[in-house]
Structure to design on (436 residues):
C-alpha cells in the first residue's frame, strides 16, 4: 500500500519504519528539516534500540523515504497522523494544534477516497470534531483512529508485533472503508493472530487514555503502599510480589520507586482530567488527581531522604545515576530522575550525574547540570549515591568495588533494583523506597 506518516517524532519515525518493514511504500513528512535529513540518512534522531537497523533496511529497500514537503502526501492513499499532543503550557489539557494542522495538510494534499488515520493520543471527541471541519471543497476522505501503545525502549517490537490493534471507525462498522484499509496495512500481524477490536471513534480515543490512566494508577497504587510501608516498617517489594501472584492483579507495573514520567503517562492523565471537566464528568476521574499527587510526592521523598542521609545538603557531593525517565531511552521529558537531580542542585548539593544516553538531552533542559560519561566518574568522591534510572549497568554495580570510589557509603535505590543485603553487607547505608 502507499502510506504517508505525518510527524516523525518518537511515534511517527518508528511507525514509518515499521510500516516499510511490513512491505508498504511509506513517506514520512515532518516540518523539522534537520530531523528529516537525519532520518533520510538512516540515523535515528533519538535513542531507540533497533530503530537504526529498521530505518536502514527500509531506506535500502526503496520503500521508505522522508520529506519536509507536504506535497509528498499526494503520493499516498492512506495517511497516518502521528504528531505530538503535548500538555498545554500552564494548563492540564492537551495541545491539539499539531493534530489540527496535520489533518488540514492531509486534506490540502489528499484526494477523494483517501483514508486518514490518527495515531496520536487525543481527548475523546477529537475525531468527531475533525470530521466536522471537512469542507465541501475538500477531498472525500474516510477518517479513522488507530491508537498506538508503543513503549519507548521497546518501540520497534511493539510496532511490528503489537499486543492488540484497535481500529476506531465511523459508527464502528466493520465494513467501513477505513477498517478495510487498515486491515490491509496490518495484514501480517493480523495473520499472525494479533487481536483486533473494531470500534467507534470515541471508544478508540478512550482506549488509549484509559490504558495509560490504568497503568499510571497501578504505579501510584504501589507507591502509595510504599508510603504506608515506610511508616510501618513493611517492605513494599515483598508486598508487590505477594499481591502480584494473584493473577487478577499481576506483578507487572507494580514496581515502587521514584514514580512515572515521560512524554505520555503524566500528560495523558492530566489531559484526561481536563477533558472530563469539559464533559461535566470531573468526578469520574477525580482519582487521577491523587494518582498524579502520589507520583510527584515520590520525587520529593527522594530529595527528603537525601537530606536525611547527608544531614545537610549544601556543598555535599551527590552522584546521580540515571537521568532518562526510564532505561533504554534518552527521553528526559517529565523525568523523575532529572527533577530530583535539579532539586538537589537547587538545595545546594554538588550534583554529578551520569546516564548512558540521556545526558545531552538533560543538559539541553538544564545547562547548569554537571554530567560525566561514566558511572565511575560520577561516583568518584561522592558522599551519597542515588540510583534514579535502572539502566542495566547501574543495576549491576558491585557494592564492594563502588565503595572504593566514593567518599561516603550512602545509597538511595530510588528504583528498588539493588540487593539491600549485598550493599549493607559491603558497609553501605542503604535506603530503598518503601523498603525496610
Ligand atoms: C507508556 C505506555 O506504557 C505505552 O503503552 C504508551 O503507548 C505510552 O506511554 P512509556 O512512556 O514508553 O509508555 O513508558 P512505560 O514503560 O509505560 O513507563 C512509564 C513510567 O513509569 C516510567 O517512568 C517508568 O519508570 C515508570 N514505571 C513503570 C514505574 O515507576 N513502575 C513500574 O512498575 C513501571
Amino acid at each position: 500500500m502507499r502510506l504517508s506518516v505525518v510527524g516523525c517524532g518518537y511515534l511517527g519515525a518508528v511507525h514509518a519504519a515499521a510500516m516499510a518493514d511490513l512491505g508498504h511504500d511509506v513517506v514520512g513528512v515532518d516540518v523539522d528539516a534537520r530531523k528529516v535529513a537525519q532520518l533520510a540518512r538512516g540515523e535515528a534522531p533519538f535513542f531507540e534500540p533497533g530503530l537504526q537497523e529498521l530505518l536502514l533496511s527500509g531506506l535500502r529497500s526503496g520503500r521508505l523515504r522522508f520529506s519536509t514537503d507536504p506535497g509528498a502526501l499526494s503520493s499516498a492513499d492512506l495517511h497516518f497522523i502521528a504528531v505530538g499532543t503535548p500538555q498545554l503550557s500552564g494548563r492540564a489539557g492537551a495541545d491539539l494544534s499539531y493534530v489540527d494542522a496535520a489533518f488540514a495538510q492531509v486534506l490540502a494534499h489528499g484526494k477523494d477516497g483517501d483514508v486518514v488515520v490518527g495515531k496520536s493520543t487525543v481527548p475523546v471527541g477529537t475525531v468527531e470534531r475533525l470530521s466536522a471541519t471537512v469542507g465541501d471543497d475538500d477531498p472525500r476522505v474516510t477518517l479513522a483512529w488507530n491508537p498506538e501503545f508503543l513503549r519507548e525502549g521497546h518501540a520497534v517490537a511493539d510496532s511490528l508485533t503489537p499486543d492488540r490493534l484497535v481500529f476506531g471507525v465511523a459508527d464502528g462498522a466493520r465494513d467501513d472503508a477505513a477498517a478495510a484499509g487498515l486491515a490491509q496495512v496490518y495484514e501480517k500481524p493480523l495473520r499472525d493472530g494479533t487481536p483486533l477490536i473494531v470500534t467507534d471513534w470515541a471508544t478508540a480515543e478512550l482506549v488509549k487514555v484509559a490504558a495509560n490512566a490504568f497503568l499510571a494508577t497501578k504505579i501510584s497504587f504501589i507507591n502509595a503502599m510504599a508510603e504506608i510501608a515506610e511508616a510501618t516498617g513493611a517492605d513494599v517489594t515483598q508486598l508487590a510480589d505477594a499481591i502480584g501472584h494473584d493473577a487478577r492483579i499481576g506483578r507487572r507495573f507494580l514496581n515502587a520507586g521514584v514514580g512515572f514520567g515521560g512524554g505520555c503517562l503524566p500528560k495523558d492523565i492530566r489531559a484526561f482530567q481536563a477533558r472530563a471537566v469539559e464533559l461535566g464528568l470531573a468526578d469520574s476521574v477525580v482519582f487521577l488527581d491523587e494518582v498524579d499527587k502520589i507520583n510527584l510526592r515520590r520525587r520529593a521523598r527522594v530529595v527528603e531522604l537525601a537530606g536525611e542521609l547527608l544531614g545537610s545538603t549544601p556543598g555535599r557531593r551527590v552522584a546521580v545515576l540515571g537521568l532518562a525517565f526510564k532505561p533504554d531511552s534518552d527521553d528526559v521529558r517529565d523525568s523523575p530522575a532529572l527533577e530530583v537531580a535539579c532539586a538537589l542542585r537547587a538545595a545546594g548539593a554538588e550534583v554529578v550525574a551520569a546516564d548512558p544516553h540521556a545526558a545531552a538531552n538533560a543538559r539541553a533542559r538544564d545547562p547548569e547540570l554537571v554530567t560525566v560519561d561514566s558511572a565511575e566518574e560520577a561516583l568518584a568522591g561522592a558522599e551519597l549515591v542515588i540510583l534514579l534510572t535502572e539502566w542495566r549497568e547501574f543495576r549491576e554495580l558491585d557494592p564492594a568495588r563502588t565503595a572504593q570510589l566514593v567518599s561516603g557509603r550512602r545509597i538511595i535505590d530510588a528504583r528498588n533494583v539493588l540487593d539491600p543485603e549485598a550493599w549493607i553487607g559491603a558497609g553501605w547505608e542503604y535506603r530503598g523506597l518503601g523498603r525496610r
